[in-house]
Design goal:
9 helices; 7 strands; 10% strand
């Protein structure tokens, strides 16, 4: 049976049940109040998920209760029995109570259905993001490799202006690749598909490898990038792949925001109980109006010198899931950032 036809059938059953209960109440003695049965079709109407229909039943049931009481008294020449009047009032309160609970149940069911539908749409969007991210990374990696080979002279000597343009394209390609990675990881975090891998990670070694892997980017902009630590080796527990991705995104953001000739310092320090990883640069700074949304998802803002900078929501999420603190500080407005 189609859903619409099934609802119509349920509504008809509710009305027939109400009429049957009202008829039985009409021809019963005054002291034998059966108006409590008028609550049955109201409770049954919850299956229709139609709040307007349930409200109509409540009104009709209250009218039926009052009319049946009047008719019972008429049959006994309007000799009102106090017990019968009290029972009528209790029956009316019962109708209102059952009706209210029924409408509340229908509202809860409706919200549950909306949440299920929203979850289904979220699953579709997550699958699209997964597909988009995977499909983007392969051609971006191939394009980046080809451009680096050309820049290194594999296809012949290039004029200086071409080398400059090619270097900028490599940087843009890296930015697109990081965006694809961010889309994929945020989709994983939002869906609860999180890595539970725990291993001993040499944080200093990972940080050094990030600086070396991003060397073409910061050398092309003539930026000085360095790694510093107060200890030779610092070990933490976690997923090395996720930790490396988070550090890479932080350093890459610093490279994008630091002008030519600037300085970036990736630092790892350890206190008695905590390990602190910081990325410092003397870039353009973050405008005061954009600082509150710095760690929100995919939030960007224009920077001095052109371009935009995406938010650091992934790193904030990565820290929150491990009960770690993610902070940003501008020591001198428009200059030093940490």
């Amino acid at each position: 049976m189609a859903p619409a036809l099934r609802r119509r059938a349920l509504q008809l059953i509710c009305f027939l049940t109400l009429i049957a209960a009202w008829t039985l109440d009409m021809f019963s003695p005054q002291l034998f109040v059966v108006a409590i049965l008028l609550s049955v079709p109201i409770a049954l109407s919850s299956l229709t998920l139609n709040q307007r229909f349930t409200f109509q039943l409540i009104v009709v049931a209250l009218i039926a209760n009052a009319s049946a009481g009047w008719f019972n008294a008429y049959q006994e020449h309007f000799r009102w029995q106090p017990i019968a009047v009290g029972d009528r009032l209790l029956a009316g309160l019962s109708i209102l109570l059952v009706g209210t609970l029924t409408i509340k149940a229908q509202q809860a069911a409706q919200r549950s259905g909306e949440l299920a539908e929203r979850h289904a749409r979220s699953e579709v969007m997550r699958d699209l993001i997964y597909a988009l991210s995977h499909d983007l990374r392969t051609p971006l990696a191939a394009a980046g490799m080809t451009m680096r080979q050309a820049l290194n002279g594999s296809y012949g000597r290039l004029p200086p202006q071409y080398r400059d343009i090619l270097g900028r394209q490599i940087a843009a390609n890296e930015e697109l690749n990081r965006l694809a990675e961010t889309l994929l990881l945020v989709a994983r975090y939002e869906s609860g598909d999180q890595s539970e891998r725990r291993e001993t990670v040499n944080l200093n070694s990972v940080a050094r490898s990030v600086i070396e892997e991003l060397r073409p980017l910061w050398e092309f902009k003539e930026i000085r990038a360095a790694f510093e630590s107060d200890l030779e080796q610092i070990y933490i527990s976690g997923d090395e792949t996720e930790i490396k991705r988070a550090i890479t995104n932080l350093v890459a953001n610093a490279v994008a925001w630091t002008p030519a000739g600037g300085t970036i310092v990736l630092r790892v320090d350890r206190s008695s109980k905590n390990v602190a990883l910081s990325v410092e640069d003397n870039g353009y700074g973050v405008p005061p109006a954009a600082r509150a949304s710095l760690f929100e998802r995919f939030v960007g803002h224009s920077r001095q010198g052109g371009g935009s900078r995406s938010g650091l929501q992934r790193e904030s999420t990565f820290g929150d899931r491990r009960r770690k603190e993610t902070r940003w500080r501008c020591d001198r407005p428009g200059n030093a950032n940490r």
